[in-house]
Amino acid sequence: MSSVTATTTTPAPAGPAPERTRPRLNWRLRFGALSLIWGFSFLLIKVGTQGYAPFQVTFGRLAFGTAVLAVAMVVRREGLPRGARTWGHLAVAGFLLNALPFSLFAFAELTIPSTLAGICNATSPLWGMALSLVALSEDRPTRVRVAGLGLGFLGVLTVLGAWQGFEGLDARGTTLALLASLSYPIGWIYVRRTLAGSSHSNLSLTGGQLLLATVQLAVVTPLFTTLPTRFAVGPLLAIAALGMLGTGLAVLIQYGLVAEVGPTTGQMVTYFVPVIAAAAGIVLLGETLTWSTPVGAAIVLAGAALTQARPKRPA
């Protein structure tokens, strides 16, 4: 959940292919670490909102995440992108891929469990599939992908308990979480149309993107919140971890994964995130699930997997 490629539900940048460097850890270990980091992000959001306003949680998250990328850029001797047009596109990308969805998830978790927020996040590939059919002429639908889209949204209705008239569902919080998930593919499509093929590195683009998203929240946060009367240590540590790990370090890990094993394998982390988010919420926060939530989540993930299927090329 930081920035984004068109092949993942959680954010990573678009631009030139990631530079290939010799990995220090086996890719499976890094894959597992990334799954855990993003899976626990929803728990950290919930803890953060217990001490700070949603906009403050998002601002802190972006500030800490930007700091991590700034250090990485200094170490790798990379600078920020140049050109007003590039910065304009990055401002839009930062809003759609970071500032908006991060804020929506923070507001959503005021009233819904972190487990449900994590499952809502898994709908991003479904939204992306639906939008790409309209916005990207090169994405041709196949029967399998369309079937996956239908199956995925059937899973969403199962999670929400549609047959019970959505009884007991917090409509506002759930809607905010689903809108956050919708914001990601809108951002992916925008980035794909405007920044794909850029001469700047992924690290440079994402550093600029997160910097602009942080500036956006720095402007918005004072307008809608007041300084807290006391600084709760636990929630503050959760926000710091959310930013440094879930928004900063996770992006760097994802670069290496995509470079080494390709986007198809790299995107599989998507299917572990809601499982880990649910387990963390239940074990550590005492959240509860009805039977329809894990069953619906499994259907959502199956549908999302089908939407990512590509037709086999003739030999």
Q: Beta-strand level of the residues, as a percent range?
A: under 5%
Secondary-structure-derived class: mainly alpha
**Average pLDDT level:** 84
Helix content: 55-70%
Q: Low-confidence runs (pLDDT<50, min 5 residues)?
A: 2-21
* Rg calculated over all Cα atoms: 19 Å
Number of helices: 11
Number of strands: 0
SSE string, helix = H, strand = E?
HHHHHHHHHHH
What is the CA-CA span between the terminal residues? 37 Å
Shape label: globular
Biggest sheet record: none
3D architecture notes:
The protein is mainly alpha-helical and 315 residues long. The protein contains eleven helices and no strands. Helix 2 packs antiparallel against helix 8, helix 3 packs antiparallel against helix 7 and helix 3 packs across helix 8. It starts with 26 loop residues before the first helix and ends in an 8-residue tail after the last helix. The N terminus is likely disordered.
Explain the layout of strands and helices.
Blueprint: H1 27-49, H2 54-75, H3 84-108, H4 114-121, H5 124-135, H6 143-160, H7 171-194, H8 202-224, H9 233-266, H10 273-285, H11 292-307
Question: Which short descriptors sum up this protein?
Answer:
single chain, 315 residues
Question: Would you summarize the structure shown here?
Answer:
This protein has 315 residues and is mainly alpha-helical.
